[in-house]
Amino acid sequence: MKLEKNSLIADGFAHPKISQEHILNINSDNISVIRFEGIQVRIVKINNEPWFIAADICKALEIKNVTNAIKTLDGDENTLCSIKGIKSSAGLPLFNLVAESGFYKLITRSRKATKDGTFAHRFANWVFRDVIPSIRRTGAYGVPFGELNDLTRRQKQYKEKSSQRGRDLQACREEKASLQREERALWSKHQSDWVEEC
């Protein structure tokens, strides 16, 4: 990471400032999702390695402060990225990503993950009892990235298409209602006794 000029903190130590060139730019098509009991954890594949959206992991582990959680990780275990077309829960286009090793560290360091009955405990058990053994045995867990990405892309296309169809249908309904009003007006004007029969 480059240091910008005048980037000294009060004690005279260099403090790195992140510039735009250090933020990974990711396309939303490169995101896959795993789900556990209704919680989604988005995964981005970078150089064939999975990176997890920190806010999603923290939500699953019932950790309220994402920033504090990732501060405990090594520098190479987290990074910042922007994902085209998606904004974070704070409304910003930037996300903290956590490497696989950081993902496991967050789980093992979570206090709630050690308390029976908590969601975080069930999530940690799922990761350690189902996900990791499956990866060890088969080399993967669940649906492969390519297939998930294809499904995600097609779901997005469907949503866009169905939204457009919904707008078109609404426009058709409005047009139909307008034509019906126009028809009544014509009949009323030229043959008022027919309108009374209806």
What does this structure look like?
The chain folds into two domains: 21-142, Mlu1-box Binding Protein, DNA-binding Domain (Roll); 149-188. Helices cover 48% and strands 18% of the residues. It has six helices and six strands. The protein has a six-stranded mixed beta sheet with strand order 1-5-6-4-3-2. It is elongated. This is Phage antirepressor protein. Residues 179-198 are annotated as: Disordered.
Keywords:
single chain, alpha+beta, six-stranded mixed sheet, 6 helices, elongated
- Written as H for each helix and E for each strand, in order along the chain, the element string is EEEEHHEEHHHH
Which fold name fills CATH's third level, the topology of the largest domain?
Mlu1-box Binding Protein, DNA-binding Domain
| Proportion of strand residues | 15-25%
Overall pLDDT score: 77
User: Uncertain runs with pLDDT below 50, 5 residues or more?
Assistant: 1-21
- Total beta strands: 6
Strand order of the largest sheet: 1-5-6-4-3-2
Straight-line N-to-C gap: 78 Å
Count of individual helical segments: 6
Question: Which class best fits the helix and strand makeup?
Answer: alpha+beta
- Helical proportion, percent range: 40-55%
Biggest sheet layout: 6 strands, mixed
What's the number of structural domains? Answer: 2
CATH class of the largest domain: Alpha Beta
What does the radius of gyration come to?
Answer: 26 Å
Q: Which descriptor suits the 3D outline?
A: elongated
Give the oligomeric state of the chains in this entry, treating copies of one chain as homo and distinct chains as hetero: single chain
Q: What is the annotated CATH architecture of the largest domain?
A: Roll
